[in-house]
Amino acid sequence: MKTYNHTTYALLGILTLDCRTGYEIKQLIDQSLNHFWKISYGQIYPNLKKLVTDGLATVKVKSQDGKPDRKEYFLTTKGKEVLQNWLAEPLQQITDERNEVLLKLFFSRHQPADQTQSLLLHYKEELQKKIDTYKAIEEMIMNWNPQSPDATYWLYTLDYGRRTTRAAIEWCEATIEKIK
Amino acid sequence: MKTYNHTTYALLGILTLDCRTGYEIKQLIDQSLNHFWKISYGQIYPNLKKLVTDGLATVKVKSQDGKPDRKEYFLTTKGKEVLQNWLAEPLQQITDERNEVLLKLFFSRHQPADQTQSLLLHYKEELQKKIDTYKAIEEMIMNWNPQSPDATYWLYTLDYGRRTTRAAIEWCEATIEKIK
DNA sequence: GGTAACATGTAAGATGTTACATGATTTT
DNA sequence: AAAATCATGTAACATCTTACATGTTACC
Question: What does UniProt give as the signal peptide span (chains A, B) (predicted)?
Fold first, then answer.
């Protein structure tokens, strides 16, 4: 069985929603997957094209008056199959963490203690902003369609973000105290 | 001020330890930074070379009998400065998460509930293995040199891993329950 | 005799980011 | 008049992974 990259799977998943153009996909990701998955136009457009050549999607060009043309993408049966097969596959990586704060902290004996403290303080503030974003995402999901069978799963991913971010904030506080 | 990539900063940091060759660096990272920073030989060797051409390190070739030649790298004053400047800089990204489990979960209405449960169960098991690794890393740090001024910071990074992983495990348990 | 540990490296390919390019309409 | 929104895309570059290539010694 052929394998595709993660970007492809993300696109296949999003196409099961009513999200059809590159532009819409980018927006949806920025609004609801952004906390655990990012994607740029430089990935979206070439990969959408590839979906079509691989037979995973079809495309229809729609002219709109007053607005630019839209290229609407639709999953094929094969595309849906590939998505479901991927879901059923075991995980490849658990987490692909690359944490810049921890990298800096690891070498922090080479800087004064107060500099390390402000590093952690800054990090804590960013994490608190993240918590605020989660609130905004939750509201967006609820406004969108809370009865949708998708919504339940989306809220689970949010809960993950909240719990782990909260744990990280607590770690920040504890570590700032220890450094004092 | 010129900027370098993260791999370069990681190498500069490691060269402040008594870790001098590409091989040793790889080992150290696999043993103690691995939970938040990974690196491959394909990054290490070319980047070490670049450190020298950029004037951040010098290299001495040592012949050993019975063993292959070692190329030992040493930080220059400029190298130490670049490291310290980077430590003092504000963070570029908070976290660069790309979480495959969450990506799958986000689209999990396209698979049966029991498949999603086993996805989470598998994830939970992997997280528990991670907790075990933290224990092993802690022992390694304590055996190495617990009095070292570095060790304190290393333990902080470990604590981060433990706290956030524990939170993730709790989330797994709660979410598996909810899906039932 | 085989494998693990020691040791250095390259080449190809996959993947991702950033900046640029275009252009209409709508809102401020 | 300027900026934001809608909409599509590319090219250059940065970065990372994987597989391959090479060779010795020590241990089982």
Answer: none
Categorize the per-residue pLDDT at A4 as very low, low, confident or very high, splitting at 50, 70 and 90.
Answer: very high
How confident is residue B116, by pLDDT bands cut at 50, 70 and 90? very high
Contact B168 A163 (CB under 8 A): yes
Question: Does residue B40 reach within 7 angstroms of strand D, measured from its CB?
Answer: yes
Domain ranges of chain B: 6-88, 100-179
Question: In terms of Cα–Cα distance, which of A165, A104, A46 is closest to B92?
Answer: A104
Segment A84-107, tens digit of pLDDT: 999 999 998 777 789 999 999 999
CA-closest candidate to residue A92, choices B98, B110, B171, B25: B98
CA of B47 and C1' of D21: distance in angstroms? 20
> Do A37 and A29 contact (CB within 8 A), yes or no?
yes
Question: Which CATH architecture best describes the domain A6-88?
Answer: Orthogonal Bundle (1.10)
Q: A103 and B160: CB-CB below 8 Å?
A: no
What are the tens digits of pLDDT across the range A59-85?
999 877 666 789 999 999 999 999 999
Token pair, residue A155, equals 């809220």
Q: Which nucleotide is nearest to B7 (CA to C1')?
A: D15
pLDDT digits (tens, 9 = 90+) for A39-66: 999 999 999 999 999 999 999 998 776 6
User: What does the buried/exposed string (b/e) look like for A75-84 if buried means 16 or more CB atoms within 10 Å of the residue's CB?
Assistant: beeebeebbe
Residue A94: name the closest of B120, B99, B121 by CA: B99
Strands (E), B7-135: 57-62, 70-75
Do A153 and B84 make contact, defined as CB atoms within 8 angstroms?
Answer: no
